[in-house]
Amino acid sequence: MNTRIRNLVKKPWLLVLVVLVAGAMILLRLRTSQIESAAEFHPSPLKVTTAVAARGSLAEKKRYLATMEPLAAAEIASQVTARIDEVFVDIGDEVSSGELLAALDGSEAGYQFQATKSRISEAEAEMEGLRMRKVSIEKNAAYWREEAGRAAFLFSEGAIARSELEMASLKEAEAQAAFKEIQSRIRALKERQGSLASEAAAFQERLALFSIRSPFDGTVTARRAEPGNLARPGEALFTVEDRSGWRLIFRVPQEDLGLIRIGQPLSGSFGRTSVTGRVDRVSPSVDAARMGRVEATLEKDPGDAAPKAYGRGVSLTIDVTLGTYEDVITIPAEGVIRAGESSFVYTVSGGRLNKQEVIVVASDGEMSAVRGLSEGDHVVRNSPFGWAALSEGREVSEE
Fold it and tell me: Are the C-beta atoms of 312 and 246 separated by less than 8 Å?
């Protein structure tokens, strides 16, 4: 024994190794004893948020992005090429139907119109003179017609000579010829007056083209006209909008067009202003992006906030009510888990999860109407660790 100790003393590293091995064996026995004496591990129940399935009604809705537009908007351009003489309105001005917005240089057309009016006045004066002459000639013709008749009677009675009869007949013929001539001149002058009237109307119509007017009551929202500039056909000078009412314009995917119907109600909001309306026009075709245009009329004017703070082209999210379902089981839409073409939910019963397949009948974005559940079922709305943490039969606690 002493020999061994002496050998260990001579080899200190061997002594250290023996101590380490002995200590490891002691620690292993202690750990094994602790594990054998420890109680079996039980994970704590997972906390989940639940909602109670209820029976009621649900309005199915679809959500789209819409833009607000005034009832009418007009880009007003000149129909003639002319210099802009004067501009009478600016952006933001309220205008009435027919109100003058700008005047173009229509001096040449004005001269032509005034010259035609002068010729019309001359023709009217000439007509008045012809009518007065006609009255006189008509009386003269009547007188000689009576004289010719009287001379014919006297000649038949032998009271006058043939020369007197012939003289009376000649005077009657001259009077009748003068009467026909004055009638012809009057007819010709009437035709000329008609031609002048048509010419004046054409000049007046052309002259009106040099006055740029508002087509309806509205607000000037754009002005591109400046005095001295040249106005050309097709180049808009002003934009006028009828903001007495508003419309919503939105586009829906091709697959949704069959769901949208005229008369369906819709609602939305922008800022603090809420709007409601009804669909009144659905495009029968789609564009290159396979989107269909839908228009709706607002049931209530959104007020001054729309034209002043937002105006034409403001975007807002709207919900179109496709239909209403009565006496259905409703649950929060966030509780429905979709897996391919099927859907399921987790319900809680006896503190454990049950995986339940359901059929979604309709949804309004917040609530869903489903088949496959009973009134009063507790449905998991969400889990703090996501849906992947849930499984059939797992123990949970409800919040």
Answer: no
The sign one gets for the Cα dihedral 61, 64, 70, 71 is negative
Q: Are 347 and 299 in contact (CB under 8 A)?
A: no
For the segment 151-178, the average pLDDT, to the nearest whole number, is 87
Which stretches within 38-161 are classed as H helix?
Answer: 107-156
Count the alpha carbons within 13 Å of 383 in the hemisphere toward its beta carbon: 23
Cα separation values, 186 from 95, 123, 190, Å: 48, 10, 6
First to last CA, the chain: 72
Residue 101 lies in a domain: no
State the average pLDDT for the chain.
85
- According to DSSP, the β-strands at 82-87 and 230-231 are antiparallel
Query: Structural domain tally of the chain?
Result: 4
CA 234/CA 211 separation, integer angstroms: 15
Q: E strands along 254-392, which residues?
A: 265-270, 273-282, 291-298, 315-332, 337-339, 342-349, 352-363, 367-371, 378-382
Contact 101, 214 (CB under 8 A): yes
Amino acid at 228: G
Looking at residue 307, what is its pLDDT? 46
Kindly tell me if the per-residue pLDDT of 351 is higher than 50. yes
Residue 389 has a pLDDT of 84
State how far the alpha carbon of 76 is from the alpha carbons of 73, 84, 207, in Å. 9, 14, 17
What's the CATH code of the domain at 296? 2.40.30.170
Question: Tokens 């660790």 identify what position?
Answer: 385
pLDDT of 201 > 70? The answer is yes
CA angle 153, 164, 174 (to 5 degrees): 95
Grade residue 163 by pLDDT with cuts at 50, 70 and 90.
Answer: confident
Angle (nearest 5°) at CA 233 between 228 and 239:
80
Q: Are residues 112 and 185 in the same domain?
A: yes
pLDDT, tens only, 92-111:
999 999 999 999 998 888 88
Q: Are residues 259 and 298 in the same domain?
A: yes
Amino acid at 263: G
- Which of 280, 243, 270, 130 minimizes the C-alpha distance to 192? 130
The verdict on residue 40 lying in a domain is no
